[in-house]
């Protein structure tokens, strides 16, 4: 009787530890995200060192500029733009901003120099993975 009671105490304690650990892990992840966001605004080079940088279009870029960027990037011989063509993994959502962002990131990942994420000032680097559904944004291309 006594031992089964202490067993229950143990189980309660384990459950408590588990919940406490999960809360702690959740909190840590949250802090990491906040830290990463701070890094990206305060120290681009530190964020680059973590090699978790993606290059996408600034949201306020005009359709004309987005089209020009796609033309430019996809005109480069080493660029495979098939993912944004009909049937490609990044065709949906069929939104110009998304298509441009995909090819800009692919272009940037070729050598990951800060000046490669510029596109006449229409690019922004971000520290969260913009991949969505079947569309995988390169972390490193070739
Ligand atoms: C996006 O472009 C707008 C308009 O040119 C500019 O004001 C804004 O600062 C840009 N955003 C970033 C994150 O560069
Ligand atoms: C990211 O953007 C910031 C601000 O424009 C810039 O200073 C930094 O060099 C960029 N980092 C990379 C790796 O492109």
UniProtKB/TrEMBL annotation:
Pfam families (alphabetical): X8
Tree of life domain: Eukaryota
Signal is among the record's keywords: yes
GO cellular component: plasmodesma
Signal peptide feature range: 1-30
Annotated ranges, domain X8: 53-137
Keywords: Signal
Protein's recorded name: X8 domain-containing protein
Species the sequence originates in: Papaver nudicaule (Iceland poppy)
